[in-house]
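Page 37, continued from 36.
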């Protein structure tokens, strides 16, 4: 074992060090950087007796490797002789340089203690080829980084962008490329980089993949309609009233003998409890409505089979409802039916406002609405829009509250109220929608009627929940309520129809436990889709703004929290925050101009003008 004398050059954790003092149990060393340490002999490796003038020692010019290999080929030289042969000296610098050459491992193998030999020529060639390949990869990588920094990608660079896309889609939390670029690996930063590089454009919506929500329709087969008895209601004038372009009509209204008839699509005729289609629908919760398009919870063929008015006659589940003089909705009949339905837009309904059956429906549904108002129903009137993305354009269309829309909405609420009351009275478990009263603390005193008041009212409302136990729905002003008019679009409605069909056919009802289990799974997925819809609507609004630099509009200040103000742009139904406006009153209208819209970061900034 070599003697560790003061001044000796040693190796400590792969770096040079100099012995400064030796005691019985410990060796004091000075390491690169000047710090000292107390170590044991087994922790260091002797390299040269010294004295070591500097740390690390000077590295001598590399020798001719080929000539050196020829000189020692076939021999195992002591390390000192190898150092002298390579560098013509036995200095500390020569030993350190020889050790570095040995560490390189390309041409030589061995150790300070056991000596050095030249590697076989075929191994050297393989090592040199690997080194060249590694160097070439590093060169190409450095050139890629330079092109990314300068924004000048080549077509062959696109596959390398996949790892950045995975971060942008929220499918990976790290990226070697982003780390090398010193960019934080967040979905927003990755998205912004992809936009800057032109890998993505503004029309890539990353939110569905971030949410882990697929955009494929289910493909399970439905089969053919069962041969079952249905009441013939084809003599009734039935109107399915919806927006222009709607392609899933699942409810229609009629009037006969003073009764409101609400006819609803009947997919539960084929989507039975526990079937494959039922499982698919439960796993989705509801249709997903994005500006880019619709993803259905049921196979698309269900719409063609059950959508009201899409065939000459449609199978339906029909509710006959009496609206009492006091405005309460009472279920008189509930039947499986055949109906003949005419489809109308809201504009088409307005043109036939004075014709039957709308003429007869209007006064009874107005009684129902006023009964709800007297019970404390909240009529929140905030701007709504429809956003559509078609052919690389974003169209935002305001949706106003019209008498026709109110009539249809109240007809559907009357059906839900009447069915819920019937189920509650007869002990039938259903997916009841309930909502506690608004939080009075969230309603500022003395606020003037208008958008700010409506905004405050909405903020004060606790979320509605679905439960198999009937409770009041304060927001609707109803003692109990169940959603039963959209079984093509919402699993809760479909589940209600599965239960109601069993009641009509005299079969044993589905248990409360069964409904609870199915509802819990479906509502969890439905909530994720509603959140995705909000995120996507906000994203596409920001894309719209990015496509319209300098956009100007009017906005209303609707909420103040300290110096943070919330404004609402009615024509976009878009909210933004701004710290400017200390003298602007709650509810005041101001003119605003867009200063920046960044869909990647999810922000749009405006200035008050």
């Amino acid at each position: 074992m070599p003697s560790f004398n003061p001044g000796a050059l040693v190796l400590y954790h792969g770096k040079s060090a100099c012995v400064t003092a030796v005691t019985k149990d410990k060796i004091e060393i000075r390491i690169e950087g000047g710090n000292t340490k107390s170590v044991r002999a087994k922790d260091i490796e002797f390299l040269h007796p010294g004295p070591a003038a500097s740390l690390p020692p000077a590295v001598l010019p590399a020798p001719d490797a080929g000539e050196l290999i020829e000189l020692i080929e076939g021999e195992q030289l002591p390390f000192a002789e190898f150092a002298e042969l390579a560098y013509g000296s036995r200095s500390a610098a020569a030993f350190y340089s020889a050790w570095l050459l040995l560490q390189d491992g390309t041409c030589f193998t061995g150790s300070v203690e056991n000596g050095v030999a030249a590697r076989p020529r075929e191994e050297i060639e393989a090592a040199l080829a690997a080194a060249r390949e590694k160097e070439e990869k590093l060169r190409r990588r450095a050139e890629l980084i330079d092109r990314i920094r300068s924004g000048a990608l080549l077509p062959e660079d696109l596959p390398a962008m996949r790892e950045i896309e995975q971060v942008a889609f929220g499918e990976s939390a790290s990226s070697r490329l982003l780390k090398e670029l010193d960019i934080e690996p967040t979905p927003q930063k990755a998205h912004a980089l992809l936009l800057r590089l032109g890998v993505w454009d503004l029309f890539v919506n990353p939110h569905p993949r971030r949410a882990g929500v697929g955009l494929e329709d289910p493909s399970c087969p439905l089969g053919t309609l069962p041969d079952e008895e249905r009441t013939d209601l084809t003599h009734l004038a039935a109107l399915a009233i919806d927006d222009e372009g709607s392609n899933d009509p699942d409810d229609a209204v009629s009037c006969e003998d003073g009764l409101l008839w609400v006819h609803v699509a009947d997919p539960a005729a084929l989507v039975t409890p526990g079937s494959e289609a039922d499982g698919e629908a439960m796993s989705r919760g509801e249709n997903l409505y994005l500006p880019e398009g619709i993803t259905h919870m049921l196979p698309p063929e269900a719409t063609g089979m059950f959508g009201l008015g899409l065939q000459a006659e449609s199978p339906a589940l029909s509710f006959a409802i009496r609206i009492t003089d006091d405005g309460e909705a009472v279920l008189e009949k509930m039947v499986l039916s055949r109906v003949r339905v005419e489809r109308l837009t809201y504009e088409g309904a307005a043109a036939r406002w004075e014709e039957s059956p709308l003429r007869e429906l209007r006064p009874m549904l107005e009684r129902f609405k006023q009964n709800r108002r007297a019970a404390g129903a909240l009529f929140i009137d905030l701007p709504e829009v429809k956003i559509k993305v078609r052919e690389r354009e974003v169209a935002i269309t305001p949706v106003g509250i019209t008498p026709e829309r109110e009539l249809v909405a109240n007809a559907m609420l009357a059906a839900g109220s009447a069915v819920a009351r019937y189920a509650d009275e007869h002990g039938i478990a259903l997916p009841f929608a309930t909502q506690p009263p608004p939080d009075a603390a969230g309603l500022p005193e003395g606020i003037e009627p208008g958008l700010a008041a409506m905004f405050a009212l909405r903020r004060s409302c606790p979320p509605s929940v679905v439960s198999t136990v009937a409770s009041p729905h304060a927001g609707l002003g109803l003692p109990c309520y169940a959603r039963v008019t959209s079984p093509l679009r919402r699993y809760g409605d479909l589940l209600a129809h599965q239960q109601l069909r069993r009641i009509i056919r005299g079969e044993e009802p589905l248990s409360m436990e069964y409904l609870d289990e199915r509802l819990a799974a479906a509502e969890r997925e439905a909530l994720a889709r509603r959140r995705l819809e909000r995120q996507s609507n906000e994203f596409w609004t920001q894309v719209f703004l990015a496509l319209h630099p300098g956009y100007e509009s009017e906005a209303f200040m609707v909420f103040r929290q300290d110096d943070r103000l919330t404004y609402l742009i009615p024509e976009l139904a878009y909210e933004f925050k701004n710290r400017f406006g200390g003298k602007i009153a709650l509810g005041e209208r101001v003119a605003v101009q867009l200063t920046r819209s960044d869909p990647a970061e999810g922000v749009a900034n405006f200035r008050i003008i």
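The chain has a mean pLDDT of 93. Flag for discussion at group meeting. The longest helix spans residues 512-546.
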